[in-house]
Write a structure and sequence with these properties.
Blueprint: H1 2-21, H2 24-34, H3 52-63, E1 70-73, H4 80-92, E2 97-100, H5 111-120, E3 124-125, E4 128-129, H6 148-154, H7 161-169, H8 172-187, E5 205-209, E6 216-220, H9 223-230, E7 234-241, E8 246-252, E9 258-264, H10 271-280, E10 292-295, E11 304-306, E12 315-317, E13 320-322, H11 323-332
Parallel strand pairs: 1-2, 9-10, 10-13
Antiparallel strand pairs: 3-4, 5-6, 7-8, 8-9, 11-12
Length: about 325
Amino acid sequence: MAKSLSNLKIASRRVESRRRFGSIQSTMRQVTGRIFWPTFWRAEAFGYPKSIHATVASVSSVVRKSPDSIVLDYFAGSGTTGHAVVTLNRADGGSRKYVLIEQGEYFDLVTKPRMQKVVYSAEWKGGKPTAPATGISHCFKVIKLESYEDTLNNLQLRRTPAQGDLLNSLPQQARDDYLLHYMLDVESRGSLLSVEDFKKPFDYQLNIAVDSAGAFEPRKIDLVETFNYLIGLRVKHIDAQPQRGFVTVTGTLPSGESCLVLWRDCDVLDYEGISKLCDKLAINPADNEFDVVYINGDHNIPTVLTQTAEEGGATRVLKLRQIEPEFLARMFDVEDV
């Protein structure tokens, strides 16, 4: 009798667990489209998603008492972890954040649409929201990193016929040494990103792979956002006016210094134009409010102000840095890697 009661308790817990977390089959039916978006996400697009109920319980066990925590998932898959964080915030009004990392081609077809839909409504049926009143205020940013294939697609080797003839005349060992140690560094120099590209930073493009077969297409690259990450800037405010030829970013550097990054289209804002903009923004040694100022392109902004004896005789310095060398050094310097 005792053994039978024990087996009954175990079976009861299994039934309860199945009801709460769902089987793999029921989870697949739910996530692969019959509840979320049946016509948008083919069942074969993502075969084994995690149970949303099990994931909510798992994440909740760690961050339930931390409404401002950050949850990181290096293998986002269909986005179940992000879904779970949104569900927890919806339940208790928390402001938890999530970071999802995924390299699968299904990101645009599965992961991203799922996050958009679960934010809009907690429940879906037949591809339509059934509880739009449960929608929450939410914003997420998609950041796509340059891949190895993207780098190869944008390399341009520059070799004159005379240089080619010279290389072919060398012994095989010398040719091998050149290919391994010099060719990519010398012949492809400047093909990925050069100083000239910073003159029109809002128009910079790379050939980006669009499928696994090797096809690619030109797409604009956000140099402004990339630089923010390179220098570790904690962004406070962005004033993007590319149609007027400039974008300004203010924030704090890892050193604690206040920082202004001023990007400009050098064809739109020449010497006179950038001087007028800097006057408007009070970028000068006399009354500049920032510890560090970055700017791209040539300019004639004064960096040192020496006061007269009547004014106190002090010398004030504006810590002004060029974006180009800082960007290229942080992007391509591999000495410490």
